[in-house]
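Record 1 of the preview.
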Amino acid sequence: MRDHALVLVVWARYAGQMAVVTPWAWRRVGPGFWRTKHVVLQLLRSALLAAATLSFFAALRYLPIAEASAITFLAPVLVVLLSPWVLGERLRRSRLAAALAGFVGILILLRPGSSILHPSVVLLFLTALCNALYLMLTRKLPKDSGATTLFYSALIGTLALAPFVPAVIDLGAISGRDAFLFALLGGFAGLGHAMLTRAVSTCPASLLAPFTYLQILWATAAGYLVFDHWPDGWSFAGMAVIVASGLALAWQERRRARAALRVP
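->
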């Protein structure tokens, strides 16, 4: 991202996902894989995902990857706070407590003197908001197949950004290594979304939620190995509070789901 325009990097990410997802969706559903009963919701969801990616990638130009990734995990907290209005769900005290704990973790990360205390942190809050709305809209799409939803996830990011690519791309500046990294970016994005969709379709969300926080570990490792950045003690404390609040929320939801199954 340091060597190429933001729009080009994000477009490559979604175009690569389209290249991976489209043949897979065709094989699973058939030539009508693009048909949906919720066109508006699918397009809005796709636009939110593209906006989240743009915001996150833009923020990474100025902020360390580990702390930035941790702040985007504010999304589950926002889901809790917004669900009464978007999904019509009840805001329980246990959910609110977990949400407040997540905010405490964010405040620790944004303490005075922190490496992440930068104006671009606003982009991370926008990322979290877009991700939260994206997740809630996903729950409103029970009648569409996972393959169809996966296809639409990459659609807006690919088509909406494509007209801007000719203005920012410099083919002479793209080396073979750059082209390979662009292909990896898109390919891993498509493969990751495909595996996530498969996991969600076969396992309870409350069981999968804890594994999403492994992203912070991978981001920390990548930040150290690639960018030689290691979070300080306070940053680790803030990240730990965010992860703990999310895991507590997932545990509560899992207990509640099991209790509901035991009710005759």
